[in-house]
């Protein structure tokens, strides 16, 4: 009870003491608020993403499954292979197959809307171990043809489109012109995959799953209890080898890959999160050093107070407890306000898609609040211990009689401690500034990177054609041609085209076979995109050799398509002698030309999609390389074919007007073509590029903000140390000036003292920054970790800031009146 009363007394006394020193308390609290708040925000993200299991039943048993091919990397599943894996394995409780979140048209209730729907096997939700918020999930057999007209809504779609109506179960909606019954709504925490707004059954009919060589699907497995990932992978590898022997044409070099689902979802975000945690940790250390310096400065003024309390019977432990209570009260106040800073940072994170964390729901939960409290306590002890020891160690006799020992010796000890803290602040600031500079330069280069197209003045928008209405390629092509004609006549449009995909947003690929070559099918994947003739002109893709597509090429392709349909009607295979004579025109990129025909012209050469008997693609032109799979991925061989129909198409327009002014006219053109179709992904090409560097931009801005804050705190720290030194040395400076020292000499001496501290911190910071830059090399794409320009620039910036911080107290010292300084006590 006495201990409790003493603690309450200490808190009341600490509050009164800090109230009397309001300036110090406010500055210290604000400094700690930023440091603790930033650490709380980043820890809450790391707690959700890295430390907690996924919100699924026994999530540690869930494994992401992939196939491997001749080319390096992991690849989607072939549906037929999945069925064999599922039935033949001995180490998995179950497996589930699902597609990719795809564009869908949601109708049946007002204006048509674009959504992302995910087709999944009936056991998808049960394997993951998640339950709906209302209604139910898929029942066994609902992934069979005729039984698959049901849908499960995400929480976000339910709220946005159906206003959270709990009576939604049983209502009919239209998805791509097909009626579906809503059977359930998932809880807000379920975001797998992040892009999915709605789930529908995947047609698991063997014919619908496609051939063994068609890799298009995703799969997850649940290991049996006690089975390790290595055991499961070994089991699947045996199955893959068995399939390779049974189906050598389609499964040659096709292997198995398995990875914990949690690791697969986190992906490359781990490095970014750890970098941010390191950055905010350094900022907090600098903040602690600054507050410690403030308290050290105040300690001198309180030494007489401590001496009096000691003379009245307070022992050293009692004084230490009182001083640490004040430090803890400061840090707890900072942590309470820091929660507001943390919430603001988390709000910014939730709006940033480029970090790959959209499938995680980050909240300030009990664990995070506990972390914040613990951090506040550790911080209070960290910055409060040294000042408390200095203050409580006051010499009772010297302080009470005002002797020389009370003014000289403690001052020197205090200055040494403060100097060490400032050197540490400068070193940590240099480290953070270099990391931020590298990230910022990398982002700038990525943002201005030549991706192979001219983005200025380019408008893009997507359209999804329901296969229920547009069943044939000819119908899809006719729609695209009509829309293209209407768009081309919009005032301000210089050129118009349709494509299957946009640059940076992926596509499909295959292994190519060069006609006349005795070599087997290449292990190099070839990207495939279908475009209309003006595509290259709209996007400004460089023409290197030959020509692009013409109207005559289009007529030839349409005739060959009709011939192909005749050969393959009723699902039969086309005769090899017929396909060998079929030649389609193709435009390839420079990388493909150099890879397959390195010592000769690629014009007139022919290749196929891995077949020895065609159909063949004849190279009529070579264009510059375009980055198709993200801005950081180097171009690979790529072939363009003529657009002859697809259920998904992207409209690209080049305009002399601001591209955003085309939104309304293009929507009107689409409404005239088919009013039931919504326009989606309406963006300029500049916006497309910006989306792909959003994560890098956010990371560089956040670390840059922390670095700027660290530099400001370091500047305040060195300013405070020198200001205190000038105050303590006022009499000394007066004596020196009365003996003939000039103002310039005094100014120089104070500047040299401050810049010496900055230089020591700079040298230590350089060494730390070099090590940190090597660690974060995986986050850099266009900049080397040892970029000398960054080190020179950040060092120069820090030197200028330090010089300004030193100059202000030095100027005050040089401006002292010698007579007044001599009378100073």
Q: Which features would summarize this protein structure in a list?
A:
alpha+beta, eight-stranded mixed sheet, six-stranded antiparallel sheet
Write the layout of secondary structure elements.
Elements: H1 2-20, H2 22-51, E1 62-68, E2 74-75, E3 77-78, H3 79-88, E4 92-98, E5 102-107, E6 113-120, H4 124-128, E7 134-135, E8 150-153, H5 155-162, E9 172-175, E10 178-185, E11 198-201, E12 215-223, H6 229-246, H7 248-251, E13 255-260, H8 261-266, H9 269-311, H10 316-350, H11 366-392, H12 396-401, H13 409-447, E14 458-464, H14 473-488, E15 493-499, E16 508-511, E17 513-514, E18 525-531, H15 535-539, E19 543-546, H16 551-567, H17 576-579, E20 583-589, H18 590-596, E21 606-608, E22 616-623, E23 638-642, E24 648-655, H19 663-673, E25 680-684, H20 685-692, H21 694-728, H22 730-738, H23 743-775, H24 788-814, H25 818-822
Parallel strand pairs: 6-11, 8-10, 18-23, 20-22
Antiparallel strand pairs: 1-2, 1-12, 1-13, 3-12, 4-12, 5-6, 5-9, 7-10, 8-11, 9-10, 14-24, 14-25, 15-24, 16-18, 17-21, 19-22, 20-23, 21-22
Helix pairs in contact: 1-10, 2-9, 2-10, 2-11, 3-6, 9-11, 9-13, 9-21, 10-11, 13-21, 13-23, 13-24, 14-19, 21-22, 21-23, 21-24, 23-24
